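hey so u asked for the seq, here:
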Amino acid sequence: PTTCNGMHEKTPHPTQKPEELLRKIVLASSNVGDLVVDPFLGSGTTAVVAEQLGRRWLGCDISAEYCTWAVQRIELVRDWSVERWIQYDQENARRRMSIR
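ran it, structure tokens below
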């Protein structure tokens, strides 16, 4: 998965990771209610995904600007079930394959 300019999750952060990638990592390495820690929060993708998947999260970043972006993203998290997020990622993967 990639983060491109047309995606709703895109921020100005230079090394932003795609939510879809972080969802795979968080699902594979934690359970609902677990604590996910990101000491380099950046644009907040890890915290956003943890929130989406029912995990507690803790993040920090040296940049106040990045923290502001992260808070803005976290406040917009959709309240979907874990199953709905997995379905969303599968639909995106199918869409990407159809345009190649």
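The mean pLDDT is 88. The two ends are 14 Å apart (CA to CA).
lmk if thats what u needed
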